[in-house]
Amino acid sequence: MDNNQPKQPQNQLQLELNPQLTKTSYSNLAIISHSRSEFVIDFAATLPGLPKAVIGDRIVMTPEHTKRLMNALFDNISKYEAQFGVIDLGGGKGPQPGTTFNLGDFGPMGGGAKS
């Protein structure tokens, strides 16, 4: 064994990105809802001139994992802003925070989540 190579932590998860299997989606709108046991994040794209936003992906997560994601996003946004400057939220023409959407039924999950 070469002692000059850094040791990998024993429990480190190795990730593989396979371009043939990995789906990439664009989203400029996210709708978040939750129940006691899970968070549902619907990612959608709004297009100019169209009256609807099309939901392309739905991610369902546990509350604990959702909070870990939130912390990772905060950390990455801080790093981004340190490198590129503060992200201005005032210039977008899309829905602003606090906008209410009528999603009706969650679809395959049924019934919709209750807060």
Range of helix content: 10-25%
Element order, helices and strands? EEEH
Structure annotation, total helices: 1
Report the portion of residues in β strands: 15-25%
Radius of gyration, CA atoms, in whole angstroms: 19 Å
Question: Which SSEs are present, and which pair or pack?
Answer:
Blueprint: E1 29-34, E2 39-46, E3 53-61, H1 63-84
Describe this protein's structure.
By secondary structure, the chain is of the alpha+beta class. The chain has a domain at 29-84. Helix content is 19%, strand content 20%. The chain has one helix and three strands. It has one helix at residues 63-84; strands at 29-34, 39-46, 53-61. It has a three-stranded antiparallel beta sheet. A hairpin with a 4-residue loop joins strand 1 and strand 2 (39-46). The longest helix has 22 residues, at 63-84. It starts with 28 loop residues before the first strand and ends in a 31-residue tail after the last helix. The model is unreliable at 106-115 (pLDDT under 50).
Summarize the structure.
The protein has 115 residues and is α+β, with helices and mostly antiparallel strands. It has one helix at 63-84; strands spanning 29-34, 39-46, 53-61. The longest helix has 22 residues, at 63-84.
Keywords:
single chain, 115 residues, alpha+beta, three-stranded antiparallel sheet, 20% strand, disordered C terminus
